[in-house]
Amino acid sequence: MFQRLIKPTLSRSFFLFGARGTGKSTFLKQLFAKKNTLWFDLLDPQLEDELSKRPNSFKEQIMSKEKISWVVIDEVQKVPKLLDIVHHLIETTNIRFALTGSSARKLKYGSANLLAGRAFVNYMHPMTSLELKKEFDLNHCLNWGSLPEIFHLKADKEKQEYLRSYAQTYLKEEIWAEHIIRKLDPFRKFLEISAQSNCEIVNFTNIARDVGADTKTVQSYYQILEDTLLGFLLEPYHKSIRKQQRQSPKFYFFDSGVKRALCNTLTQTVLPNTYAYGKSFEHWVISEIYRLNLYFKKDFKLSYLLTKDHAEIDLIVERPGKTTLLIEIKSSDNIDDRAVKTLKQFINDISKSEALVLSKDKKSKLIDGIQCYYWQDGINKIFK
Hints:
- The chain has 3 domains: 14-123, P-loop containing nucleotide triphosphate hydrolases (Rossmann fold, 3-Layer(aba) Sandwich), CATH 3.40.50.300; 129-227 and 253-271, no CATH class; 283-383, Trna Endonuclease, Chain: A, domain 1 (3-Layer(aba) Sandwich).
- It contains 15 helices and 13 strands.
- It is an alpha/beta fold.
- The radius of gyration is 22 Å and the shape is globular.
């Protein structure tokens, strides 16, 4: 059993959002093991149907129980009407609610605003290296991702089947069954193409042409990926510098294993010293920083920088009240002065900034005044 980093505040109700399979239900079962808790699992079709038709029965069941301190609603987006009742019960009773969801879409465009300020929002992600501890293996995570279930599977074929099934479940249960899109085939093609261009700047026009859809449709597809928590956009650095900057975002899938399933590369091992390995390593490091930023509630603003003459900073971390970090990510085991070349171009252009290199080189180095860390050591210093 893994110890998760997430620590919801238990003084009031909360949402726990996260993609399917990130361990939300398991986490809550641990959290509320010793509390008097009533559970509603909306993945149960019969219960979902009952509460959809008679949402008031939800309140009746709660009020019929004595000494209930917490109510858990698993996958609350399946019956958004329940949020009206939750809102009322929060206002009129001492009962607190833990509301999980693998898709924020229905809530985002529905009734979730009724709980604004009354329920804190938390997010759960695939496993981080800090949570995996001794179980962590970088190459394993680059190949198979870090969804909790993947660590219970031994054979590579089992992992392949799990990830393929996960991708199909997403299409079937999160997209098609919820009527989020009208046509499934263009979206299915989009998923493969967007996975192939993971970590790259999004060219909406080119992807639209490849998918056979218009640009606005492709933009809406990326919004669906964000709303269903299958990935996040990394926006370009917003402050003007002397060099002209690119303005389109990058997109990162939430898990490298699911990403590989979507682009049909699970049978191809991600090998060190290859381009694919370098991109996978960048994906892992940026995802790790993204996850820890949310878990530790640091409010860091993450972005990237690419100029029109192709000078690039992989990650910029703006930290409230602290220096801005300019981060270069390298998958090399032996860092030299080539790793700091781009950072030196920008260190004077961005005020109150410091530069770091995060790599697989386990020996910390200072090269031309720029600190180079083994990636885990560097992340630990960023988050203290």
